[in-house]
Design goal:
Layout (H helix, E strand, L loop, with lengths): L2 E4 L2 E4 L2 H35 L1
Antiparallel strand pairs: 1-2
Length: 50
Amino acid sequence: MPNMKVNGRKVYVKPIYWAIFWTSKLIILILATIFVLKEFTDVLDGVWFF
């Protein structure tokens, strides 16, 4: 079971909250990656046009 250290004490975290935490981090990471790739392809399109 996952434990988080808070102020040097181990605090038990419910697995459901842990899953939500990691899922939200993963979704943010995927969205950021898509955004960066989209911006990058836009830049490449601009390079192709000029």
